[in-house]
């Protein structure tokens, strides 16, 4: 499917049996799915850890720019990973903005009003398991009760399936500067407990080269050392 | 029962708590008990049998998929011969299951197989969206394997097989959702590496978690109000208990085992 430039009303319905293969397919899939369950918006989020903070990296979304800016990545990370986030197979519970200050302290009254005004009066937050990778999806509608709860349970599994087909794209989609194959290989062997010299023998290059690959990987992750780079790579499913 | 009503029944049941933290994970069996009770594997087997009945499968098995690259085998949790172990399970726990372990780590899509002579079941899978064919997991049968994942990063596989399996597209999501719920309950009762995770102390894990977040020993010592030596000692002990050669490998192992997030 190649319809990202086409007007929305002409967006062709995806054939469920055709495998997804590109970022455009992922966008098309989420647009169709949101419409199917009665949601106005979707947002696919990867969570990245940085010291003691969690940050949200948005993989794809049809939230308007201002809504993302005003809500902020912190709030989005909290929504994606909060107390109302449901695992596949559990009964999903929406965050209803008008009742939110009571909802497990997830958002403050002011943030709830903001979400409501921005057209996210009801938000379902779903955990998506794509192999060992973990992503989060927010489906929202302007007013409560618009989204079909049973359809959400099905949609959650469909998301897991669809993203499984493009898992190779996802691991790196949330990164601004993806790792090269060599850098990834080095990180993998280090995570298996090999020393720089051992990795050099395994890959048949000099240990200076190995060190430089690893340094680049650390920089790309903006990690502070090897251990953190390894942790980031495992959390995002790259190794 | 239509698919929608089945899902509603499942959600209605969930409202009473089978999958909530407050009651036994196997719901119906825990309701009415005065204190929160943890279900047993026998309860899980019963629950799995209901799923098998709904798709007309004659056999089933639930596995953990080893989280680290050194163990590519499926680790049996229970099967349809519980408390015994069926020949099919032994087969899948061997090299026959290795490909599915690797698949489970990367993908959540179900996989089906159909060996010669099981054409009836094969027809049920051929037209389904989102599922693809794989090499037979159990010889002379047809079946379907659902990758499942639990809260702390445990991976598993729910397998159903038989000669007369019936599975409709709209049923697929419901069945897989029930497998997810069942596995997450099983993982709470029997964490994949219980012995290992108990052995590593809370303090050691805290140090490891901070290491994974980029803190140096000095920073950890300052944060936890320890001496640098103590922090280093915790990390060394941690690496030993996890059978790792360096603290970097210990971080990697702990993350893959789900000991730290």
Work out the count of structural domains of chain A. Answer: 2
Helix content of chain A: 40-55%
Number of helices of chain B: 11
- Give the amount of beta strand of chain B, in percent: 5-15%
Biggest β-sheet: strands ordered side by side in the sheet of chain A:
2-1-5-4-3
Structural class of chain A: alpha+beta
Low-pLDDT ranges of chain B: 1-38
Spell the H/E element sequence of chain A: HEEHEHEEHHHHHH
Kindly report the average pLDDT value of chain A.
85
Q: Count of helical segments of chain A?
A: 9
CATH superfamily label of the largest domain in chain A:
Transcription factor LuxR-like, autoinducer-binding domain
Tell me the name of the CATH class of the largest domain in chain B: Alpha Beta
**Radius of gyration of chain A over all CA atoms, rounded:** 20 Å
Over all CA atoms, what is the radius of gyration of chain B?
21 Å
What attributes characterize this protein structure?
heterodimer, A: 239 residues, alpha+beta, 2 domains, 9 helices, B: 261 residues, Beta-Lactamase, 11 helices, 47% helix, elongated
Can you put this structure into words, describing what you see?
The complex is a heterodimer of chains A (239) and B (261). Chain A is of the alpha+beta class and 239 residues long. Chain A is 45% helix and 16% strand. Chain A folds into 2 domains: 8-173, Transcription factor LuxR-like, autoinducer-binding domain (Beta-Lactamase), CATH 3.30.450; 181-235, Orthogonal Bundle (Arc Repressor Mutant, subunit A), CATH 1.10.10. Chain A has a 5-stranded antiparallel β-sheet, with helices on both faces. In chain A, a hairpin with a 2-residue loop joins strand 1 (41-50) and strand 2. Chain A starts with 22 loop residues before the first helix and ends with a helix. With 261 residues, chain B is an alpha+beta fold. Chain B has 2 domains: 40-168 and 187-192, Beta-Lactamase (2-Layer Sandwich); 195-257, Orthogonal Bundle (Arc Repressor Mutant, subunit A). Chain B is 47% helix and 13% strand. Chain B contains 11 helices and 6 strands. Chain B has helices spanning 3-15, 41-54, 87-93, 98-106, 119-126, 169-189, 194-199, 202-212, 217-224, 228-241, 247-257; strands spanning 59-65, 74-79, 111-114, 132-133, 142-149, 155-162. A 6-stranded mixed β-sheet of chain B has the order 2-1-6-5-3-4, sandwiched between helices. In chain B, a hairpin with an 8-residue loop joins strand 1 (59-65) and strand 2. Chain B starts with a helix and ends with a helix. Classes of the chains: A alpha+beta (239), B alpha+beta (261). Chains A and B meet through helix 4 and helix 9 of A and helix 1, helix 4, helix 6 and helix 11 of B.
């Amino acid at each position: 499917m190649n319809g990202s430039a086409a007007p929305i009303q002409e967006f062709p319905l995806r054939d469920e049996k055709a495998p997804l293969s590109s970022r455009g397919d992922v966008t098309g899939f989420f647009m169709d799915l949101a419409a199917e369950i009665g949601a106005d918006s979707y947002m696919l989020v990867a969570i990245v850890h940085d010291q003691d903070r969690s940050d949200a990296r948005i993989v794809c979304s049809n939230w308007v720019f201002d809504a993302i800016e005003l809500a902020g990545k912190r709030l989005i990370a909290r929504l994606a990973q909060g107390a109302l986030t449901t695992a596949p197979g559990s009964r999903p519970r929406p965050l209803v903005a008008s009742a939110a200050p009571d909802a497990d302290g997830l958002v403050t009254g002011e943030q709830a009003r903001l979400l409501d005004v921005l057209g996210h009066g009801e938000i379902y937050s779903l955990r998506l398991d794509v192999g060992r990778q973990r992503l989060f999806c927010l489906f929202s509608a302007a007013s409560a009760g618009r989204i079909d709860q049973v359809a959400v349970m099905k949609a959650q599994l469909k998301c897991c399936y669809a993203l499984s087909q493009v898992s190779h794209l996802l691991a790196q989609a949330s990164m601004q500067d993806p790792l090269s194959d060599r850098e990834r290989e080095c990180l993998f062997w280090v995570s298996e407990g090999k020393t720089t010299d051992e990795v050099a023998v395994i890959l048949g290059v000099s240990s200076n080269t190995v060190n430089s690959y690893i340094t680049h990987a650390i920089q790309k992750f903006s990690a502070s050392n090897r251990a953190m780079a390894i942790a980031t790579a495992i959390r995002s499913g790259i190794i | 029962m239509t698919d929608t009503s089945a899902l509603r029944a499942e959600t209605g049941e969930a409202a009473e708590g089978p999958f909530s933290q407050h009651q036994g994970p196997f719901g119906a069996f825990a309701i009415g008990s005065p204190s929160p009770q943890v279900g047993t594997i026998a309860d899980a087997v019963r629950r799995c049998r209901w799923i098998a009945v709904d798709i007309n499968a004659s056999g089933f098995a639930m596995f953990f998929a080893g989280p680290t690259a050194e163990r590519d085998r499926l680790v049996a949790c229970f099967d349809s011969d519980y408390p015994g172990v069926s020949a099919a399970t032994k087969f899948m726990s061997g090299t026959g299951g290795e490909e599915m372990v690797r698949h489970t780590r990367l993908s959540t899509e179900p996989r089906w197989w159909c060996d010669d002579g099981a054409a009836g079941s094969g027809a049920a899978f051929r037209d389904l969206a989102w599922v693809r064919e794989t090499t037979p997991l159990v010889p002379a049968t047809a079946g379907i394997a659902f990758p499942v994942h639990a809260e702390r990063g445990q991976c598993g596989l729910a397998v159903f097989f038989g000669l007369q399996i019936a599975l409709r597209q709209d049923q697929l999501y419901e069945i897989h959702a029930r497998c997810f719920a069942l596995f997450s309950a099983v993982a709470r009762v029997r964490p994949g590496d219980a012995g290992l995770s108990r052995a590593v102390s809370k303090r050691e894990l805290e140090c490891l978690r901070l290491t994974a977040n980029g803190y140096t020993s000095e920073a950890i010592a300052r944060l936890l109000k320890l001496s640098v030596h103590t922090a280093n000692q915790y990390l060394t002990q941690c690496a030993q208990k996890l059978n790792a050669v360096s603290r970097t490998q210990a971080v990697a192992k702990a993350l893959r085992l789900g000991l730290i997030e």
